[in-house]
Design goal:
This protein has a single domain, classed as Beta-Lactamase (2-Layer Sandwich). Helices cover 35% and strands 22% of the residues. β3 and β4 form a beta hairpin.
């Protein structure tokens, strides 16, 4: 709002601008609804679901992934999968996720964690919508 003052310092006029943000608010609400649906569906699975970047950092994790190591999904975010499940400081040899990043193709394999658990891992590439 812009104001114009009289010589005595009182407001003489005011200019106010506004715009309709209804569509933006509706789009924001739709995005929140979509995110809630995604989280609800993926958290209902007993399988671990991780979304990782090319450096193997966890960007998102479902509840089952966190519960398997006694952490919340938020506590997994930003950490490397090999640190959490394998207690390593570098990626595991033969990791299907690493192979997916290298080849751009779906990869599958078994990985054994230090506690003796054997995991079947399937890694699928995530591509842009275009």
């Amino acid at each position: 709002m812009a104001q114009v003052f009289d010589t005595d310092g009182s407001v003489a006029t005011a200019v106010c601008a506004g715009r309709d943000v209804t569509e933006c608010k509706a789009a924001e609400e739709a995005m929140r609804t979509d995110e809630l649906e995604k989280v609800t569906i993926l958290n209902s699975l007993s399988e671990h679901v991780l979304y990782q970047d090319a450096e193997m950092r966890i960007l998102w994790a479902n509840r089952a992934a966190g519960e398997s190591v006694g952490l919340t999904p938020d506590e997994l975010v930003g950490r490397h999968c090999y640190e959490i499940w394998h207690q390593r400081s570098e990626p595991c040899a033969g990791c299907p996720v690493r192979k997916t990043h290298e080849t751009g193709q779906t990869q599958e394999g078994e990985m054994t964690t230090p506690d003796g658990r054997v995991w079947f891992i399937r890694s699928d590439p995530v591509r842009d919508a275009d």
